[in-house]
């Protein structure tokens, strides 16, 4: 099955970054992990991660880690667990399992549901070319409905300080919930209430992945974060 990659190229010279849509007809019906849920229904985190790994140049058996490739690899390498920690009917992503792939590792996981997101650290990571995935509320203002997107730089080559200024008002995102060709959006427009001033309020959790020249390894202690069950409204 050949998967079409969508890239964003604009007159502002943004990117191009790889965009994947979890509702792409080519793979939206594929089971997520070993569960009966589908990529199209609850695969936002896995799809966002696929986008980041692709742009870091990570490969899986010589192939681009698009959503179906990454999903298959994760399911075969302990990348999904169920609510009891087992691998049967599992669709909860284990964040640090990608450390077993060459060229990438989970650098940090931050739970900021009860505090402001670490925007200085996020800005530095984005400016350094790291992959930053963030959890937002799919329908802000009520009970948290988990949804994951990938944060993107305002434009290539900006400094951490410039990125921090930009993130003070909004953030450009790759949103896997959108249909193919419309994945690039603005965080505050889509996942914030009018009274929220900055992305720091809209970001609930953060996972930062960085390139590495190290050999693949087992997940480190620092990556032993709780798995996340992704539920998307209207799915």
Give an account of the 3D structure:
- Strand 6 and strand 7 form a beta hairpin.
- Strands 5-10-6-7-8-9 form a six-stranded antiparallel beta sheet, sandwiched between helices.
- By secondary structure, the chain is α+β, with helices and mostly antiparallel strands.
- The chain is globular and about 40 Å long.
- It has helices at 39-42, 44-55, 67-76, 119-127, 160-167, 187-190, 199-202; strands spanning 6-7, 18-19, 80-81, 92-93, 104-111, 131-137, 146-152, 172-174, 184-186, 205-211.
- Mean pLDDT is 85; it is low at 1-14 and 218-235.
- It has seven helices and ten strands.
Taking the alpha carbons of the first and last residues, their distance comes to 24 Å
Mean pLDDT score, rounded?
Answer: 85
| Strands, count | 10
Instruction: Bin the strand percentage.
Output: 15-25%
Q: Kindly name the structural category.
A: alpha+beta
Largest sheet: 6 strands, antiparallel
The low-confidence runs, each spanning 5 or more residues with pLDDT under 50, are: 1-14, 218-235
Give the CA-based shape. globular
Q: Strands of the largest sheet, in order across it?
A: 5-10-6-7-8-9
Percent of residues in helices comes to 10-25%
Alpha plus pi helix count: 7
The figure for the number of domains is: 1
State Rg: 16 Å
Helices and strands, in order, run as EEHHHEEEHEEHEEHHE
Q: Quick gist of this model?
A:
The chain has 235 residues and is of the alpha+beta class. The chain has helices at residues 39-42, 44-55, 67-76, 119-127, 160-167, 187-190, 199-202; strands spanning 6-7, 18-19, 80-81, 92-93, 104-111, 131-137, 146-152, 172-174, 184-186, 205-211.
